[in-house]
Description:
CATH topology: NADH Oxidase
Order of helices and strands: HHEHHEEEEHEHHEHHEEEH
Number of helices: 10
Shape: globular
Amino acid sequence: MITRPGEDGRTDADALPREAAIAGAHSRARAPESGQYPSPAASLPATLPAAPTPWRAAEHGGVRLDREEMYRYLGHTGQHLEPELAARIEAIAAGVESDLAPRGAWGVFPVIASTGSGEVSPSDAGAANPRPVPPEREGAGAPHASVAAGADSAPEGMPHIRLGGTTVVLSGRDIFRHLKDARWAAVITCTLGHESERMLRLAGSRRPFEGAVLDAACSAYAEAAAEAMDNLVSDRARDAGLFTTWRFSPGYGDLPLDAQPALLAAVNAGRLCGITTTPANLLMPTKSITAIIGIFDQEPTRAGMRGCAACRLRTGCSFRARGATCYRQEDLHAPGT
């Protein structure tokens, strides 16, 4: 049995009773009837986890820090760098890779899409009846999550997505378009851990140049971890003959940041990888990411906006001001976008 200590001093063994209880809750869910969503444990492919699952980069071949991404965060647009300066930057990037261990948690949940008018839109799976949340999988009795800011409610008349078995409610037209035809959604969250916070504080207070490069390197490394988890979800879905969309995070489009606490609770992120939120719903440690990925029976034809058009910060973006983006253009044209 693995008993590595986590961020809060608890071990993976401590989490086993909770995960066993979650699995039991799934197995006790009543058989699907007309108008009820089936239990995830009964219908979810074996390649996808029905309970919150820890993720460690080292157990999946490691993660490489994308140097191009790091330079993009630094605002570099192809200018010549003196060899000595390039060597200093590379040393910091290599130190991030050797000193920090990306970790995370993920889980897969049924999607219940509501137009906001009381109707529930069926997925491309061809459900003949609406799929409301069964009583034992809704509200305070949900097995995965506790009530948090942004959970369990949506503005009246606003399209929204509920994740079955949790208190997660994702409100907004953009996330609705992204997930409305999905059968399941994977919630992923990853972090560089509190060690990255210590490194950033120390470098920022003593060596401003190293602090700026370290911040960019950590951002790129966290993004690489999210990409690795995204690929894991896509690979597992593909093994089951399913399809996925690109990942969508709180803050994209009109999906508010107050969805963060419920998403973290849904995958037990505080216990499994040490991520929490501030009162303003920002993630701690700061080099952390949460995202939602749609999983479909058929290849999705449209997954909503992506890129600058979906970003709330586009009007004051420093990347756009210098004719650049914070993402790679080729990512906009990847499958599922």
